[in-house]
Fold this protein.
Amino acid sequence: MKYVQQVLENLKKNNPNEPEFHQAATEILSTLAPVVEKHPEYEAAGLLERFVEPERVVMFRVPWVDDKGKVHVNKGYRVQFNSAIGPYKGGLRFHPSVNLSIIKFLGLEQILKNSLTGLPIGGGKGGSDFDPKGKSDREIMNFCQSFMTELYRHVGADTDVPAGDIGVGGREIGYLFGQYKRIRNEHVGVLTGRGLTYGGSLVRTEATGYGLVYITEEALKARGDSFEGKTVIISGSGNVAIYACEKAQSLGAKVVAMYDSDGYIHDPDGINLEVVKDIKEVKRGRIKEYVKKVKKAIYKEGCKGIWTIPCDIALPCATQNEIDAESAKILVKNGVKYVAEGANMPSTLEAIEVFQKSGVVFLPAKAANAGGVATSALEMAQSSGRMFWSFEEVDAKLKNIMVSIYHNMEDAAKEYGCEGNYVLGANIAGFIKVATAMMAHGIV
Ligand code: NDP
Ligand code: 2IT
């Protein structure tokens, strides 16, 4: 459709050198034509042009001092993309690859993901090109304090509520929260993923991985199947990967491989997750140490080889573009039936096409990994109410949300004549709520 194409062309022209942002926008806009056709008032109101333009982008200097007294300067970002349905909400990523393009792709995805949760949260994302790997606790603290010393003026419990993402876990959220509280003299829900002693929610740590497995379980159930006895590959070995593995195993699946950015482990009898947790969560070590503890497992340098291991279900849980068309074809050839994205945009556009053309059940990130941010919104609700729900209560709410997301995207895909196309279903189901709110607010 001409309007959608024009918006995408202009976006590429006006935001050059932002390939990840172009990729996410292409995936989204290429599915929205039927909605825009049904609602000509959207074009008249310049809705798509406004939708793809962040409300605000903050970029700042983050100076910090290492243990040897050397001064370093990193870039800090917060993209406040869309607040139509609630305060900006989305994680902070600390990774050397971070740039504006990556934060904008993540922010754009986050708008629709947050809408899909059914909870009142807008879309935002932030981070830094700081590399937490190999840094001491004190260096991490110095960095987080410096980062928040600028960020505090842009965020707030009713304005913008960041959380974790790659390189930002409980430790970092603690230091960021401590500095915010110190500057503002307010103990409020300005961040989620907080520790349980200072406003955090049970299940938030597990939420993204558990949610990913819950939505995949619903897709299996709809086809008269289950995780029982399935062979699963999970890329990454961080927060999302570990808890996806835990829940999949508890449902009877055999998870045979995981990786970090150096290489992958293959344990055909099933990964011993306690060993992985000890290496990654306790010691902050490398996945290759697994084979020292589990002798029958093998370790291979490099990540790509993981996709050559035959599996029924693939759960990419590391980073963007980790599955290209070549890896997708190998997965399909080896019989993969389900691909559910725990990471954000882990499949290239070409890989998605391979999966969809081969009849693989493909659950896109903005639906499949929404459990993390959904539980963040539950953390916000608990903070506002100054009370806590039990593990079972939060877990039950998370599961309901994931099941609803599955059915909402399924229904939207059917309504628009594309049954089983969950990329289209998730985009449309997420977009309609945001568009309706934006229309109600006038040209803002
Ligand atoms: P973590 O930092 O806990 O773990 C990231 C994992 O991915 C690590 O094993 C890391 O390996 C690996 N990884 C990161 N970058 C690369 C790379 N370039 N190549 C290969 N491996 C890489 O992050 P999370 O588990 O929190 O996040 C993982 C993904 O899930 C991200 O895409 C994130 O955006 C997404 N996500 C996270 C949510 C959350 O609640 N945390 C919610 C929704 C989505 P190494 O240690 O070697 O860097
Ligand atoms: O990509 C994501 O949804 C996250 N990193 C979690 C965001 C959040 O605010 O919990």
Q: What stands out?
A: The mean pLDDT is 98.
